[in-house]
Amino acid sequence: MVEFIIGIILLLTFFGLAYYCIKGHNLMIGFLVITIIWTVLPLLGTLFASSDFLAANEVLQYNGVLGNDGLVKKILNNIYQTAPEGWGTTLVNVCWGAWFGRVMMDTGIASTLIRKTVELGGDKPIVTITLLNIVTALIFTAMTGAGPVIAIGVIVLPILMSLGVPKAIALFSFMGSVAAGIYLNPVNFAQYRAFFIQPDQMPDFTLSWYAAHWGYAALIIMLVVTTILTGIFLKKSKTSRAWAAQTRGASTPQKDAPLYTLILPIVPVVLNIALGFSVIGGFVLAGFAGLFLCGRMKGTFKENCQLVNKLYYDGVVDTAPLVGFLLTLPMFNTVATYASPYFTVVLGEVIPTSELVICIVFAVLIFMGLFRGPLTLVGCGAATLGVLSNVASFSVPFLYAIFAIPTITVNIGSCITQSWVAWGLAYTKVESSDFLKLSIPNAYVTGILQYVAVFLMLTGLGAAWYI
Amino acid sequence: MTKDDLKQALQPIARGLFGKQGTNRYQRPVFTSYPLETMLADLTAIPPLAWYPYVFSREPLNGKFNDGQRREWMEKAWKCGEEYAEKMSAEFGTENPVLLANAMKMKVEYPTLPEKTDRVLFAEFRDPDNIRIYMDAVKKADRLLSDDRVREILTDKLNVSKLLLAHELFHYVEEKYKDEIYTQQEKIRLWSLGPVHNDSTIYALGEIAAMGFAAKLNDLPYAPWVMDVFLVYGYSENEACGLYDEIMTLVGKGGD
Ligand SMILES: [Zn+2]
What we know:
- The structure holds two protein chains of two kinds.
- Chain A is built from 19 helices and one strand.
- Chain A is an all-alpha fold.
- Chain A has a domain at 91-321.
- Chain A starts with a helix and ends in a 9-residue tail after the last helix.
- By secondary structure, chain B is mainly α.
- Chain B is 56% helix and 10% strand.
- Chain B is built from twelve helices and five strands.
- Chain B has helices spanning 3-18, 36-44, 52-57, 67-92, 97-103, 135-145, 148-154, 160-176, 182-185, 203-218, 226-235, 237-251; strands at 107-109, 121-126, 130-133, 187-193, 196-201.
- In chain B, the strands form two sheets. Chain B has a three-stranded mixed β-sheet.
- The interface between A and B is large, with 54 and 60 residues.
- Strand 1 (240-244) of chain A pairs antiparallel with strand 2 (121-126) of chain B.
- Bound molecules: zinc ion.
- Zinc ion (ZN) binds at residues 167, 171, 207, 210 of chain B.
- Zinc ion binds at residues 167, 171, 207, 210 of chain B.
């Protein structure tokens, strides 16, 4: 009985967290507070719960306060030390990815790539948009973070607008393509993978395996749907020629990067997927190749060191707002395992255990990935995952994919709470509602097709893919 | 401790917990500021054809052109605009853009602001026959024009609303005569693969000709691109100064 009441209280705090996230409050603090509540309640519960319940759940058994089997070492240290430490590996990838993004911008490789792409399309907006979307997606398979998105956005968006593409459509198309690229981004992959398993668990679940079994399909679906919808939206809106003006600053225009360096943005990902080459190794290799080939390393040794250093600094600053949240989340992920026995008591009968039903339910509830809602991993979806994975048993790749869709397609690609979408709205002066009118249909069409792909490609996996 | 004291003491904690998510808000950079008269005096002194570096800086295909092409196209497009201004005013018997628009059966609207709250949009032409002049920009400009010094520099020839209308009228003319007009006939080959190739018109040419057309109809003694800075100034002095700096740098007079 006590376990049931605690389960209900935990469930209420979960809805409280969802509300808190949707209201746009600070995510890091929100998750820290919920972690503490979810530590205290389940542990207090062990003092009063029925002995059958405790005997059935090994995670809740401890022996006194101190000692190796005691409360502090067995449970508290696990939540507040081991868990965030385990995310160190993920964080290192994020930092190197951010550095690489800065290098691609500083060398002019990214901007040259965009300009050359536009020069292939000419006065046919839909051709230009299609090419730009493909290139944008390719670029963001390797680069991530608000810095690179903004750097590419300030090139792409004015070009689209000057071709007569209405701003909201230009913004929607660009943000959708960025998100499509994220599906194959090794840094995001490492980051989300850590929600499901420890970095050293399940070594076969690599980016290469994931890409071949679902990742390529997810990227292509999002890219194609976004581009087709852009075409449809464009058809509906009349072409217009506007007299407007906006300064781009008096800075001297950047020189074009050499043509053969334009391949570098996708080198880290290709090396990783094709050869199993390390992600960070790829970033270092392609990053320095870019710096040397574009003549950015022609100064003295000291100047070169300063440049590399500055790019690293700027890159890490780009990702800083994310880091606090990322290092609080693993505490929460771990605490969810201690809370899950209580959830099972309440929800065990309700939560579907069939993969097909889960796909359908998630597809219908796609909107819950918006506004940091209960389906996005970079929002309170982390809590949903905690409940779902502990109450029912699904394979890791399947779980990964069903949560990747609301996280990437919906939150990153379609939601105004995503940092760089918020930037884009301010930059282009597009109303949030005008953006959402375009992005939510895209989230649904893309998301549903991606869930179909999940069902076709990732269901019924063997025992090796379960933990 | 009173209730208010307690509230005050708890406020910082509540803010820390429930403060809004600190997403990176985009902030426009701050530019050096200049007096409006100085900027207008400098900009009106730029001969129309000398504006080409600024005009082409907004052209998506600019990277494919050399400076010789830009100069040549600038001259031809500007002339094309002037010629069509003469042709149209002869055909319809008026140089007044408002009467011309009537004669061409254009649907001209004067809304205050664009629907999509794009604030720094002055006017637009929508296929096939719709022109919108955004009065918010015009009224802000008229307010600035009530200053004698500004009026003197920009001269009495300037009627902002008519100038905008004339510019947009050209886009209609361009569409109507697209099979023969220079701005739609000049094309650049972007790529070719055997028999397959992609030839594109050049976006900037239509804009240049529209300015030539508008300047001619309004008998304006300077290039209408001056309006880019002048109209933006009504919304944001900072933005206008940044634009002025950019133009002066591009046009090559240095922004001292
Ligand atoms: Zn125009």
